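Subject: Interface between my chains keeps coming out wrong

I've been trying for a while to get a sensible model of this assembly. When I model each chain on its own everything looks fine, but I need the whole thing in one frame so I can look at the contacts. Pasting all components below, labels as-is. Any help appreciated, I'm running out of ideas.
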Amino acid sequence: MRENRASLGLALQALYADGCIRTSGSAMSQSVELEVFTDYV
Amino acid sequence: MNLTWVHFPLHPETPAEGIALEDLFAGRDIDLDAMYVQMKSLMEAEGLPYSRRTHSYNSRLAQELGKWADTQPGGEAIHDALYRAYFVDTLNIGDPEVLVGIAASVGLSEADARKVLQDRSFSEAVDADWARSRQFGITGVPTFVANGFGVVGAQSYETLEHLIKRAREVSQGSNSDN
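Reply #2:
Try treating it as a single job with all components included. I did that and got this:
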């Protein structure tokens, strides 16, 4: 699990591309917060 | 949908100079060669580069830098850059000067990045993330949490889409109840 992060970037990028995700600070009504707990190592 | 990176301490005990993978995984019956081959294969299947590392490094300062970068226009690019630095370029992302260079590579101010690392001005913010990780009982990364729903590990587009839809449904349901 710790090392199996290969799909993380691609799946998130796809969600960005589809407009599902904006980065923190975007003003959106009815928004849902997605928290990604992660580390760089 | 807003995305927030919450930093989790995977190996907070790692010394500043890093630790050899043989030492990190000592006593855990892990075949490093086999692990690398497996990960390389998984990464290639996703079209992602992945290099053979000899060491793991302390990510605390990288997390503080990432927290600061989230406050800067376009700063979210630093997350991919930090992953690349560690997993592809095999750099010591615990080294402040390495981190300053990474910040500059994504268009952030070198001077501001250096000051953040010297002043530890985002230390409390990362402490809060670690506390939130404990509060949620996080044990591995990545873990995705949205409105009380969570999934652990690398996940497909469809799984993340489902998570978001469920979170939104619950959110809209609670709003209409008010």
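Reply #3:
Confirming on my end. Chain A touches chain B at residues 1-12, 14-15, 20-26, 28, 30-41 (CB under 8 Å).
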